[in-house]
Amino acid sequence: MNTADLFQVKKASFSAHGKFLLTGEYAVLDNVDALAIPLKLDQRLNIESREDSLIQWTSYNADGTIWFEDSILLENLIDTRFKGDSDIAKKLVTILKTALKLVDKSNFTSGFNAITKLDFDRNSGMGTSSTLISMVSEWIGCDPYKLQFECFGGSGYDIACAKADSAIVYNYNDADPRVHVISYEPSFKDQLYFIYLNQKQDSRKSIASFNPELLTDEIRITLNEMPKRFLESEDDLEAFKEIIVEHEQIIGELIGVKPVKERLFADYSGAVKSLGGWGGDYILVTGTESSMEYFKSKGYHQIYRWDEVVLGN
Question: What is the pTM of this model?
Fold first, then answer.
């Protein structure tokens, strides 16, 4: 095999930010502007070359436990018959093969040890896959959006967040993403909390519930204005709550699902907003430290203050 066709493995380290999508869930797939924020919680990747032709991949969850571990021969990256021992192993091979293809390489010069470590729970919807795509693309030198779209689909806003230093307004733009970096720091951020609903939401299944035919020109205009309206309400908590309620109603009608507050927290006094795919992962709520007892009493104990997780705060 021509060595020019091989990617040279060297010791390297990478990191990428988790994310939350504040506006435009589902509709972001149809070129609607969306407001998203990168998180202080990262995933990291460390690479070290080996003397043999084995890829030893180990992934650690936030609690230090190993959630994925496998050994893969380099030959499996060119063997179309490779089935893998698990869906995760098959997806990993697909990511590596696709990344190499995007830079016109057929394989690696040697085997390597790869260790990933998460700051957030892998089931939380904060971006386990997108942070991996970002780091692998940085390592191999390929376009992260192309790698994301080929391997997972989706809008790519999470890829933009992976390397962002502050909030962004993102537009899919028919797979040619536009990213506008902004400053977003609500004056009432001490009254904003993120709460995990204890249910991992499958992004692909979530996307399938969106019916773009319901996205009328009027709704599109309204959703496109949402990032601006969030920014304009940075100093007005009551206006912010009203915008959240309006946004939840619009998205609920687009996907045929009642807003999460109506379904689970109808008697809560503050505003509640789904983040990303509806039905699991995190929600954003307005309230106080004492009002978080309401959610704890219902079994939701994974709660973050805005400043704890949002990058740039």
Answer: 0.94
